[in-house]
Task: inverse folding
């Protein structure tokens, strides 16, 4: 099974993460603004940075799925 995220999906995820960090982490207002500005200026759809993040996320997700499926194969039936 192969699951691949798109740039748009990773961008939406990044929006949620940055918003959550800005709300929950005790940062000065200046740092929160810098974080949001970074996300909106450097991590926009079509940028090299977002493309690289998408590729990395897809590789990591695939590696995790592969590790999990290998782990399931090695488990004895009685441990499920």
Result:
């Amino acid at each position: 099974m192969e699951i691949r995220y798109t740039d748009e999906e990773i961008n939406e995820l990044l929006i949620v993460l940055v918003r959550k960090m800005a709300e929950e982490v005790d940062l000065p207002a200046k740092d929160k603004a810098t974080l949001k500005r970074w996300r909106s200026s450097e991590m926009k759809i079509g940028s090299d940075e977002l493309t690289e993040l998408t590729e990395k996320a897809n590789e990591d997700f695939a590696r995790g799925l592969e590790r999990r499926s290998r782990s399931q194969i090695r488990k004895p039936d009685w441990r499920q």
